[in-house]
């Protein structure tokens, strides 16, 4: 399982996998197992990215509520 801490790492890894998949498709046919593996890795990374964005949005909203209460 791949776990990355920030947006930049996630986006970089997603792009790396996309390029790798594109290159392999260009030069040779991928086996079904390879396609499935890359697909699962991309799904996992995209889900991590979305969870991270949601967490940051919730934190930002909580910080906004805290600031409003302090005023």
What is the strand content?
A: under 5%
Contiguous runs where pLDDT drops below 50 for at least 5 residues? none
Q: What is the percent of helical residues?
A: over 70%
Structural class: mainly alpha
How far apart the termini lie comes to: 44 Å
Briefly, what is this?
By secondary structure, the protein is mostly helical.
Q: Which descriptors would you attach to this protein?
A:
0% strand, 2 helices, 85% helix, single chain, mainly alpha, 71 residues
How would you describe what is shown here?
This protein is mainly α and 71 residues long. It has one domain. It has helices spanning 7-27, 32-70. Helix 1 packs antiparallel against helix 2. The longest helix is centred in the C-terminal third of the chain and has 39 residues, at 32-70.
How do the helices and strands line up, and which of them pair or pack?
Layout: H1 7-27, H2 32-70
Helix pairs in contact: 1-2
């Amino acid at each position: 399982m791949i776990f990355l801490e920030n947006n930049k790492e996630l986006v970089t890894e997603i792009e790396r996998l996309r390029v790798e998949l594109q290159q392999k498709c260009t030069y040779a046919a991928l086996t079904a197992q390879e396609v499935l593996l890359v697909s699962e890795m991309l799904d996992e990374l995209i889900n991590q990215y979305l969870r991270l964005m949601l967490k940051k949005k919730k934190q930002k909203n909580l910080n906004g509520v805290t600031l409003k209460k302090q005023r």
